[in-house]
Amino acid sequence: MQDRSAPPRRPLNTASKVMRLTGIALVVAVTAAAFAYVNGSLDSHRLTPRKLVDNLETNNGIYPGYRRNHAKGVCVVGYFENSGQLREYSSAAVFSDARTPLVGRFALAGGNPQAPDSGAPVRSLALRFELANGEQWRTGMNTMPVFPVSTPEAFYEMLQAGRPDPATGKPDPGAMPKFFAAHPESAAFLQWVKSAKPSASYATETYNGINAFYLVNAAGKRQAVRWSVVPLDQNAADAAIAQDANVLEPDLAQRLASGPLRWQLRMTLGKPEDPTSDATKVWPGDRTVLDAGTVVLQEIQPQNSGECRDINYDPLILPSGIEGSDDPLLAARSAVYANSYLRRTSEVGKLPAATATKESRQ
Asked: Does 253 have pLDDT greater than 90?
């Protein structure tokens, strides 16, 4: 039915049509150029997401249908229970609503989905919060408290140092020590590696956001933060992992069969002098830490058919009230995740037949 209260539309004259079409063409051209730049088609010497993911494939091997890093994992679903302590710092609905549903994924570092659980000291927990207003907050956290390098270029160099020799199938044993000697910013990470003792359970680990972000309140005031999730109820002093190929997923399933698992989401408030652009730097231990609420996980699902399978845990998908910082690794992670996502989702049909059912719930 026509709305008679609305003024009648005037037909566009020829000049207006040309200007409108020209404007659309310019937008399309600029967008295409931006995508070409990101994909590296304008400059073959520029570091691109494609080059980074190609190196991950070279180092780890190619396993069609799986993520190019953190390939071995398991889906979890649950919710976030808000404490209310972040309301004055952020206008994000996740910090005002009582409860927000989430879909998560635990994983091991590395690109081999058949790797033994004892083979990687780094575990990860990624979460997608589905806010009631339709926005999303996605975050990927790791058990390491800092990143080994501060720039995408240095990360690329590190991948190159770990590249296997075609003749032996193994990396040059002197390449990685040489790399770290040339990158003293890795000191905090190397110190953590020396003392890291991965437990026999995903449930007993603390997971760190590593990169800095900003909380923004309704008045536009910005507060630099880093976050982590710390286990509650679980025994954080669990025994070190045994030399078993598959212990983490069965352990998680057994624990969840007895009831939900909980982590406290802790927000560390930075001061103006704290670096936000360098993920290798640890903030001083005397910074204010707020209890943002509780991450509650209720159910486990297979990663190849569960709800997390088709989610790209891009750390720059943020709701109003949370913003990315000036850390260059954030944009790099976002672009690399997108490249890996496109590769693996085009290969879903190559997953094992029992798990290749299409279940896109994104």
From this structure: yes
